[in-house]
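Entry for pyridoxal-5'-phosphate complex. Fields follow.
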Amino acid sequence: MYSFLNNEFLSAEKTFIHASDLATQRGYGIFDFFKIMNGRLLFVEDYFDRFYRSAEIMRLPISLSREELKKVILELVQKNGVSDCGIKMILTGGYSPGGYEIASPNLIITQHSLTMPGTPVLDKGIKIITHEYVRDIPHVKTINYITGIWLQKRIKDEHAADVLYHLNGLVSEFPRCNLFIVKEDRTVITPAKRVLHGITRKNILNLNGKDFSIREDDVSLQDVFKAKEVFLTSTTKRVIPIVQVDDTMIGIGKPGEISLRILEALIETENKN
Ligand SMILES: Cc1ncc(COP(=O)(O)O)c(C=O)c1O
């Protein structure tokens, strides 16, 4: 497999950055990730918008224009001969002489195999736990997943699949996914504040349900416990139903009908893109 580093294609095993990079020294960098299915770059403009916006906010110039970046990605996919995959674009703080100031960013592009959630998880749903925390600069897709990775052991010990962040009674998101709840009156709500604006979240907000409405708003922990349905969303997971939050069963403890309809509609949106 090939990867891309700054201006050249390299064998993936030989794609190295130097230890002085601000990503290694201080965890400073951003990234983004999107899917290619049957050779189609799904919602690529949305992911590029977020990547370039994150870069600008973090004061990291991207050396390639959007058109050049797309050309590099298509060439990478062609070189690797894999048309169903995930593409990860990473932009680091660069080789920083003092280890604390932003330097010239390194752009790394890697291609990954994709495994979408299978039937068992969609049939049964998952348990999640909660944790008091808000990500640093939540609207930016930084490479900082320290708390999420640190919580992996607790998630495993509590036989859960993920962890939902909350602060002062309001929930926000998961380390790598957004949250949606379905209320008794069939309104579907996703937290409005302190979240990454997920592309899957955006696609779901654009869905027009015949007998449900979708919007952004504040969501409290109590709203989650009392919800009829709860689910998480992301590029790689699409929609995963949540049937237990800490010790509380959600709804009747089974994946909800609206969650599964939203998943179907999302797949349709992907197929049309
Ligand atoms: C913090 C965070 N929230 C939400 C998401 C989901 O975003 P998307 O639907 O664009 O994959 C991600 C994706 O990695 C994430 O890192």
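NOTE: The longest helix spans residues 257-272.
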